[in-house]
Specification:
Elements (H helix, E strand, L loop, with lengths): L1 H135 L25 E4 L5 E6 L1 H18 L5 E4 L14 H8 L5 E13 L5 E14 L11
Parallel strand pairs: 3-4
Antiparallel strand pairs: 1-2, 2-4, 4-5
C-alpha cells in the first residue's frame, strides 16, 4: 500500500511539476512575443517618423525652390522693365533731337525764304529801274551770229575700178593690185609644177569677179583651187578693197583674190597669154 501511495504521489508531483513548467514556458513565450511585437511596433513608428520627416523636408525644399524661382522671375522682370525704360528713354531722346533738328531746319528755311523774298523785291525794283532806263534809251540793233555752212567733203572715186555705197554713208571701193596679182600667179605656177600638169593655161581676167567667190591668196587655198586642172584654163584676178568714210578718209580693208578653172581644148604652155 505504501508503495502504491508513493508511486501515485510521485506521479502527481511529476504531473504538477510538468504543468508548472508548461505554465512557466507559456508565460516566457508570451513575454518574448510581446517584446517582439513591441520592437516591431517601435520600428514601424520610427519608419513612419522618418517618412514624415522626409516628407516635411521635401515640402520645405519645394517651398524653397518655389520661392527662389519666384525671386528669379521677379528679378528678370525688373531687369526687363529697366531695359525697356532705358530703351524708351533713348527713343524719346532721339525723337526729341529729330524734332528739334526739323524745327531748326524749318526755321532756317523760313528765314531763307524771307531773305530771298526781300532780295527779289529789291531785284524787282532794280529791274524796274533798268527797264525804265531802257525805255528812255533807243534800242540798238542786235547782230545775229553768222551761221557757217559746212559743205560735205568731195570724194574722188575715179581712181578706183569700181565702188559701192556703204551703210555708214561712205563707200566700199576696189582697185586692181599688181603686187597681189603677181603673188597669185606665182602661187598658181608653183602648184601646177608640183602636181606635174603640162597642159594648163593661166589667164588674167577681171570678168570673173562678178561670178566667183573671193579668197585670201596662200599656198593651201590656191592648191585647192587648181587641183585636177590638167587640160583646163585657169583665170585669175586680184584687187584691194578700200573703205572710205563720209568725210573722205581712206583705209585698206583687205586683198581679194579670184580663181576660176574652165575647160580648154588645145594644149597651152605656162607662158602663153591671151
Amino acid at each position: 500500500m505504501k508503495k502504491k501511495i508513493l508511486i501515485i504521489s510521485t506521479i502527481i508531483l511529476v504531473i504538477v511539476i510538468g504543468l508548472i513548467g508548461l505554465f512557466v514556458f507559456y508565460k516566457v513565450q508570451q513575454k518574448e512575443k510581446t517584446v517582439e511585437v513591441s520592437k516591431i511596433n517601435d520600428t514601424e513608428i520610427t519608419e513612419e517618423k522618418i517618412v514624415e520627416e522626409t516628407k516635411d523636408e521635401n515640402a520645405n525644399n519645394n517651398e524653397l525652390v518655389q520661392n527662389t524661382n519666384e525671386e528669379i522671375k521677379e528679378k528678370t522682370e525688373e531687369k526687363q522693365e529697366s531695359q525697356e525704360t532705358k530703351e524708351q528713354k533713348e527713343t524719346n531722346e532721339k525723337n526729341n533731337q529729330e524734332t528739334k533738328e526739323k524745327v531748326n531746319t524749318e526755321t532756317q528755311k523760313i528765314k531763307e525764304n524771307n531773305n530771298s523774298n526781300k532780295n527779289n523785291s529789291n531785284n524787282q525794283q532794280t529791274t524796274n529801274q533798268v527797264t525804265n532806263s531802257k525805255i528812255e534809251t533807243p534800242k540798238q540793233e542786235e547782230k545775229q551770229p553768222e551761221i557757217t555752212k559746212t559743205e560735205p567733203a568731195k570724194i574722188d572715186l575715179s581712181k578706183y575700178d569700181r565702188y559701192e555705197n556703204a551703210l555708214n554713208g561712205g563707200y566700199k571701193a576696189y582697185k586692181k593690185s599688181d603686187s597681189e596679182m603677181n603673188k597669185l600667179r606665182e602661187l598658181i605656177e608653183s602648184c601646177i609644177k608640183e602636181y606635174g600638169y603640162t597642159n594648163v593655161k593661166i589667164v588674167q581676167s577681171s570678168s570673173i569677179i562678178n561670178n566667183t567667190q573671193s579668197f585670201t591668196a596662200n599656198k593651201t587655198n590656191v592648191s585647192n583651187k587648181v587641183y585636177d586642172s590638167e587640160d583646163f584654163t585657169i583665170y585669175y584676178y586680184a584687187e584691194t578693197e578700200y573703205h572710205i568714210t563720209s568725210n573722205g578718209t581712206e583705209s585698206v580693208f583687205q586683198n581679194r583674190s579670184y580663181i576660176k578653172v574652165k575647160k580648154c581644148f588645145k594644149k597651152y604652155s605656162l607662158t602663153d597669154k591671151i
